[in-house]
Design goal:
The complex is a heterodimer. Chain A is α/β, with parallel strands linked by helices. Helix content of chain A is 60%, strand content 12%. Chain A has two domains: 2-137, Rossmann fold; 149-206, Orthogonal Bundle (Arc Repressor Mutant, subunit A). The radius of gyration of chain A is 23 Å and the shape is elongated. The two termini of chain A are 39 Å apart. By secondary structure, chain B is of the alpha+beta class. A five-stranded antiparallel sheet of chain B has the order 2-1-5-4-3. Chain B has a five-stranded antiparallel sheet with strand order 7-6-10-9-8. In chain B, strands 12-14-15-17-16 form a five-stranded mixed sheet. The chains are: A alpha/beta, B alpha+beta.
């Protein structure tokens, strides 16, 4: 448990497969390349134990008794979980795999697979997840900063981002140009924006 | 005797005429004491004396008949002809009956006609002619003789119509008599030959007998010696008849006992059962053809079932293959690392081997299931048999997201069956259940199949032995059930409600179960869906002398 906590911020490969041998062999493979992995025998067990905060990816068997892979995917989507999913499928499961990709899975791989193919996909997925999480963090930071602005400051910043000059904003809001400049400067300081281009990028990002 | 009794009265009557008075009483006593009826009539046939026995025999009293004509105690046509007989005799003196005695018929007062033995004598004294008739009622004797004759004729008819060979043997076992069938079979040299010679010399050759014994378990090969035969029954023996044909005779032998209870000979009866035997062979052949046909059909159906299950089986094989491949690749990577422990690699290699075994088992199970072999009975545990089927259907069940529950009878239940064919039936019923559940579009459709084995006691005494026990295997599903209109057709060949499939499944199931002396039936599931169940007779004891099954 302690080790788990320590690794929580490290990328983890989650394996969900009902076949014990498949789970066990995947664990060994990830261990052989020094990757962090956890295996679950069912979708239910995974939902019970995983943490949304852990980055990584999900290697998911599409065909399982009880909750199927697709059902788990839908549940995760509903929870706004962004964990990238790589489906492992059998030969006859292509239509299901297509559906899975349409629902946002990043890829699927057929059993039995070449280890390198799987590891490549996993690495891509993890990289994507990390980027995604970073982006999410940045967006969240911007959102947090935006929340510190007064109503007037927010109003003026939005017009600035829209490309309005101070003069135009002053006339639109029926304020003096000086007041507009003051609010704008406060807002830029609160947002930590160094330039006009910077603040524009921030706002576009969160939208 | 009759002749004597005729002459005596006339002799007596001569004496009587000399000592008339003393003899009269003697004569009366004699007449009254005689068992035979004595009637005296004059030359016109007019009755003058009618003895006490005559009264008894004819039912008339003397008073009724004295003075009446003799014709009153005669039936037609003698009645009408009698007077002319008497006239004829008076004229010609040629006796037709007097001093001769004859068997004729008489008539009682009640009109009944009966046979009598009649002797007539005549006395002539001072021109007076008297006829003395002595009459004995022989109806009983005649009846016995007739019966005897009838029995003789009856026996002849029986012996002539009977198809068995019948021989009569004396106390030395020599054949003294044979019926026509026996004479035709063994030849007429049969008579006066020792039974053992006839019996032993007509036996078929040993090689031929050995051949027969393959299909005819009861065939015996007895040789008789000359010691007296004892009673025996049901000895099946092959003989050659006069035309050289091999015939199966079923011998029965009974002693004839003399009045003193000593054996005075034997009756040997042989029934020709060749035709029965041939019919039995034909039946066996027909049965074996039917069995072969069923086996082939069952095999084809199994192949087609397995074809339908191919995707599921491929998936099942793919699992261990994936594990093997992944383990091997992991090992490869581990071995390139400097700090890898040998134990990890060894352990993984063992896991690989285990997974290969697992894949092999699936293939083996499949091959065993589709392999063609003619049906062979084996004593197996029903629960074990069904567990094996469940391993075949596992992937199908999972794939279709169905919950399969099974309740097995707690003890092992042994049945004598062709394992693959019974498994085929169970598999078929489970797969039908899956399809029925999939086809059910009702919104609150649960997806369960219940498989149950239970012990039942037979009550159908006509079809089975008393107290025979059976195991019942039932498969119930939560599908849409069977349409009322189509229940009657369920087990018909080529009947199907599916868009795919030959419609052979249930039909072949039925013929398999019937061939195993069981019954298969459909009943609606009270909770919705269908229940298909079949029975199998429980094998009573284990081959290895183990406990008898519950």
């Amino acid at each position: 448990m302690v080790a788990l906590k320590m690794n929580e911020s490290e990328p983890t490969i989650f394996i969900v497969d009902d076949d014990e041998a498949v789970r066990d062999s995947l664990m060994l493979l990830f261990q052989s390349v020094g990757m962090n992995a956890r295996a679950f025998e069912s979708g239910e067990a995974f939902l019970d134990q995983f943490s949304m905060d852990t980055p990584g990816c999900l290697v998911l068997d599409i065909r399982m008794p009880g909750m199927s892979g697709l059902e788990l995917q839908n549940k995760l989507n509903a929870m706004h979980c962004i964990l990238p999913i790589i489906f492992i499928t059998g030969h006859g499961d292509i239509p299901m795999a297509v559906k899975a990709v349409q629902s946002g899975a990043i890829d699927f791989i057929q059993k039995p697979f070449r280890d390198q193919d799987l590891l490549d996909r996993i690495n891509d997925a993890i990289r994507l997840d990390i980027t995604h999480r970073q982006e999410l963090t940045q967006t969240q930071q911007i959102k947090d900063k935006l929340a510190t602005l007064t109503k007037r400051e927010y109003e003026i910043i939005m017009l600035v981002v829209d490309g309005c000059a101070n003069k135009v904003i002053a006339s639109d809001l029926n304020l003096s140009q000086r007041t507009v400049e003051l609010h704008r400067s406060h807002a830029m300081q609160k947002m930590g924006a160094k330039s006009l281009a910077h603040i524009i990028r921030m706002i576009v990002n969160i939208n | 005797m009759t002749g004597d009794s005729v002459s005596k009265p006339s002799h007596h009557s001569n004496k009587m005429s000399k000592t008339k008075n003393s003899s009269k009483a003697q004569l009366d006593a004699l007449i009254d004491a005689a068992v035979d009826a004595i009637i005296i009539a004059d030359d016109k046939g007019c009755i003058e004396l009618f003895s006490r026995s005559a009264e008894k025999i004819f039912g008339y009293t003397q008073g009724e008949l004295i003075g009446k004509n003799l014709s009153s105690i005669m039936p037609p046509p003698y009645r009408e002809a009698h007077n002319s007989y008497m006239n004829n005799y008076s004229e010609t003196r040629q006796p037709k009956i007097i001093g001769i005695g004859r068997l004729v018929t008489a008539q009682r007062k009640d009109g009944s006609v009966f046979p009598i033995e009649l002797s007539v004598g005549e006395t002539i004294e001072s021109d007076k002619v008297q006829y003395i008739g002595i009459i004995r009622d022989v109806s009983e004797r005649v009846a016995i003789e007739r019966e005897k004759e009838r029995l003789l004729k009856k026996n002849q008819a029986i012996l002539a119509s009977i198809s068995d060979l019948i021989l009569e043997l004396d106390s030395n076992n020599n054949i003294t008599w044979a019926n026509q069938k026996a004479l035709v079979f063994f030849g007429s040299s049969l008579l006066n030959s020792p039974f053992s010679t006839i019996f032993n010399n007509t036996l078929i050759p040993d090689t031929s007998l050995a051949e027969k014994k393959k299909t005819h378990k009861n065939a015996t090969s007895i040789n008789f010696n000359d010691t007296p035969l004892t009673t025996f029954e049901n000895i099946d023996q092959w003989h050659l008849n006069q035309s050289g044909q091999e015939c199966l005779l079923d011998w029965h032998c009974q002693k004839i006992k003399s009045e003193q209870g000593n054996p005075s000979g034997m009756i040997a009866v042989a029934r020709d059962k060749t035709a029965d035997y041939k019919a039995h062979l034909n039946l066996q052949k027909a049965e074996s053809e039917a069995r072969e046909h069923r086996d082939k059909l069952a095999h084809v159906t199994r192949l087609s079932t397995l074809g339908e299950m191919a995707a599921g089986i491929a998936h099942e094989v793919n699992q261990p293959l994936t594990a093997i491949s992944t383990y091997a690749q992991a090992c490869h990577r581990l071995l390139r690392l400097s700090n890898t422990k040998t134990e990890v690699v060894i352990e993984t290699l063992q896991k690989i081997s285990h997974q290969a075994q697992r894949a092999g088992d699936i293939i083996h199970r499949m091959r065993k299931f589709v392999k063609y072999k003619s049906s062979m009975l084996e004593k197996v545990d029903v629960n074990e048999l069904i567990s094996e089927v469940l391993r075949l259907t596992d992937s199908d069940i999972d794939r279709n997201n169905i919950e399969l529950k099974h309740t097995f009878f707690e003890n092992a239940v042994f049945v004598s069956v062709d394992p693959v064919q019974i498994q085929q039936v169970v598999l078929n019923l489970i797969r039908n259940g899956i399809e029925s559940i999939n086809a059910n579009t009702e919104p609150h459709n649960t997806r369960t199949i219940n498989l149950q084995t239970s012990n039942i006691q037979t009550i159908d005494l006509q079809r089975k032995h008393l107290g025979a026990r059976e195991i019942e295997v039932s498969v119930s599903d939560s599908g849409g059930g069977v349409n009322k209109e189509t229940i009657g057709e369920l087990f018909n060949p080529f009947f199907t409600t599916k868009s795919t499939g030959l419609g052979m499944g249930l039909s072949i199931c039925q013929s398999i179960i019937t061939a195993h002396h069981g019954e298969i039936k459909y009943s609606p599931n009270p909770k919705g869906g269908a229940i298909f169940s079949f029975t199998l007779p429980i094998a009573l004891e284990l081959d290895n002398g183990g406990v008898e099954n519950e």
